[in-house]
Amino acid sequence: MGEPVSNPARHYVSVVVPLYNEEKNVASLLDELLPVLDNFGHQCELLLVNDGSRDQTGPLATELSKRDKRIRVIHLRHNVGQTAAMMAGFDNARGDVIVPIDGDLQNDPADIPRLVEMLDQGFDVVSGWRNHRSDQLILRKIPSWIANAIISRVSGVKLHDYGCTLKAYRRDVLSGVRLYGELHRFVPIFASWQGARITEMTVKHRARENGVSKYGINRVFKVVLDLMLVRFLTKYQTNAMYVFGAVGLVFFAIAFAAALYAVYLKIFNAISLTLTPLPLIAAFGFMTGFMCILLGLIAELLVRTYFESQGSLPYVIGSRVNFDAE
Question: Residue 37: is its pLDDT beyond 60?
Fold first, then answer.
């Protein structure tokens, strides 16, 4: 993660709040957030992203924005999920520091200055850690502990609490990061691809008093599937052939072994090929292996098409020296 170097500076801080059916919380949230921003010592803005709420969250957010010019509201046409709503906030933020926070009052706005101060110690990402969560043990805490341990192990980015929305990012480490599905919890991993220095700090967590939680036990399965995707993107984004090719070779090996054993039984035991499933296994293995190789080739073509058509590069330059003339 690199050695931090203290470098206090004035920032433009963008606080991003995705909201979905939070009409009972949005006014109270602003009552807590605005005094924090008033005494922050940095220029600030507050982006409220209404994620297609079906209650009065949208009109309330618009009405509340009239009380302070720092409050900006983004209304999405329909519900697209927390990840896409957060991405809309990131794309429209003007600050050099971006701090997402939940709109359900379970995060404490008073922790925001502490996160930004940690950035000034030389870090690029400061992740909140709800060390003492006010959630149910069986349905929320234990699955979260297991998921965080697996994610840290697989990704190599060691954090105790990937699910905590409250984090602070330097804007430059989010450049080029595009979020889809429910990948917002993996932003620190994407930032690490850009060479970001990452740390975490404990933050407060409060029990939900109003509204209904948007997450259930099915979130665990989504995390596992998303982790598989992130792992694939981490190691094989530019060489997908290694994945599909390896699987294809496994099926080729199975097909070869089945065919060889079938021939052995025919020659030495006089067992007809039609009396065993081995020829079918061999044919199935060969066809599956062949299809995997073709998928690998198609994936390689898609990767090259993506980078070349979008003008994207498979690397990120941290700095350049003596390029002023160019």
Answer: yes
Helix (H, G, I), strand (E, B) or coil at 14: strand
Domain boundaries, the chain: 12-236, 241-310
Q: The pTM is what?
A: 0.72
225's torsion region: left (phi>0), alpha (psi -120 to 50) or beta? Answer: alpha
Residue written as tokens 């043990």? 137
Name the nearest CA neighbour of 19 among 98, 99, 96, 105.
105
Task: Tell me the DSSP string of 60-112.
Answer: HHHHHGGG-TTEEEEE-SS---HHHHHHHHHHH---SEEEE--SSS-B-GGGH
Please write the tens of the pLDDT for every residue from 154-178: 788 889 998 899 999 999 888 767 7
Query: Which pair of tokens denotes residue 213?
Result: 């939680």
DSSP 186: G
Find out whether 262 and 280 touch, Cβ atoms under 8 Å.
no
Q: Which amino acid is at 190?
A: F
What is the DSSP code (8-state) at residue 311? Answer: T
Q: Going by C-beta distance under 8 Å and a sequence separation of 6 or more, which residues neighbour residue 259?
A: 278, 279, 282
CB 73 within 8 A of CB 39: no
Rounded distance between C-alpha atoms, residue 248 and residue 293, angstroms: 6
The topology (CATH level 3) of 12-236 is Spore Coat Polysaccharide Biosynthesis Protein SpsA; Chain A (3.90.550)
DSSP E strand boundaries for 149-210: 167-170, 198-202
